[in-house]
Amino acid sequence: MAALPESEYMSSVWKDGIFDNKVVFCTGGAGTICSAQVRALVRLGANAMIIGRNVEKTETMAKSIATARKGSKVIGIGAVDVRKIQDLEGAVARCVKELGGIDYVIAGAAGNFISPISGLSSNAFKTVIDIDTIGSFNTLKATVPELIKSAKKNPNTGTNPSTGGRIIFISASFHLTGMPLQAHAAVAKAGVDALSATTALEYGPRGITSNIITPGPISGTEGMARLGSREAEGNGNAYKKVPLQRYGLVKEIADGTIYLFSDAGNYVNGEVLVIDGGDWRSPGAPGGATSAYPDYLLDSTFERKSKL
Q1: What is d(CA 95, CA 103) in angstroms, rounded to the nearest whole number?
Q2: Residue 173 backbone phi and psi in degrees, to 5
Q3: pLDDT class of 88 with cuts at 50, 70, 90
Q4: Residue 215 contacts residue 248 (beta carbons within 8 Å)
Q5: Were both Cys, which of 67, 160, 212, 251 would link to 272 (CB 3.0–4.6 Å)?
Q6: Burial category of 69 from C-beta neighbours within 10 Å (exposed 0-12, middle 13-18, buried 19 and up)
């Protein structure tokens, strides 16, 4: 299996070896964004365990990530449901046994789709809450004992270049301003943001940092496939609401991850790092809308598309 070019998953500014002897545990690790985050950390010295639902996809991605650095150890565990704390506790136990501990955690498992409230069933709403919010809480609960050990072993003194005990939750910007057709995801991610803030307060005294990364529209991801508009991308209108006039790249999310886990992020705690080119500040219609707000809500465009 050939290694991906570094330029696809991280910038060239980072120093080799900054994550030597560290272990990262990532839920949703077979996804486009999370796999790039983990790949960058592995390239810079870490070993990793990625968690996913699909066994084959997760194991294949783990093998691919391992090509980022000769001698790295990357384990992929599929058939893990983040809604079940027992699944995560089992994965954590295996990670500790095989990789020696956990220094960094990325809580990245998520689910989403487009739907107006009128077409959103209680079960569909609950499913997103369970995966995004409860899943993030379960990830924290299962890993925090190991993060405490890592933080104690690698103290955050401000001068130590190799700290441990850090967690990043992957969020979204829907709840920052409100977003039509995203009530379920907005509520779920608002809960994730609140969880991270509380984690920063409760575990900061133990040396743990907890932060949020909020990706915007990122090219080539599963999220854009579900929520974006191929028609708008084809005619060049998709990017107009993004102030930088382009979609982001997965490497830009990975760069933010490196920053928060590295020595450069030692004093960053309880923050929300939005990496979206300013998109959340710019009003616009969701992917697939063929008219402006509020017309796309009143003409039943999405009512027809979202009978779940």
Answers
A1: 11
A2: -100, 5
A3: very high
A4: yes
A5: 212
A6: buried
Calpha distance 236→66 (Å, rounded): 36
Tokens of 47: 């070993």
Residue 90 has pLDDT above 70, yes or no: yes
* Structure tokens, 207: 């040396």
Arithmetic mean of pLDDT over the chain: 92
- Check residue 295 and give its pLDDT: 81
Judge whether 23 and 41 are in contact, CB under 8 Å: no
CB-based burial, 232-243: b 16+ in 10 Å, e otherwise: beeeeebbebbe
On whether the pTM is more than 0.70, the answer is yes
**Which positions are annotated as active-site residues?**
171, 189
The span from the CA of 76 to the CA of 60, in Å, is: 8
As given in the structure block, the two tokens for residue 46 are 């870490």
- Rounded CA separation 88/84 (Å): 7
Please report which residue ranges of the chain form alpha helices under DSSP H: 32-43, 55-66, 85-99, 122-128, 135-153, 174-177, 183-203, 222-227, 230-235, 250-261, 295-298
Report the candidate in 218, 261, 210 with the shortest Cα–Cα distance to residue 41: 261
Rounded to the nearest 10 degrees, what angle do helices 250-261 and 32-43 cross at?
Answer: 50
Mean pLDDT of 250-261: 98
- Whether 301 shows a pLDDT value over 80: the answer reads no
Residue 179: how many CB atoms within 10 A of its CB?
A: 17
Instruction: Give the pLDDT confidence score for residue 298 in this predicted structure.
Output: 82
Q: Which three-class secondary structure state does DSSP give residue 77? A: strand
CA distances from 275 to 80, 106, 260 (A): 28, 16, 13
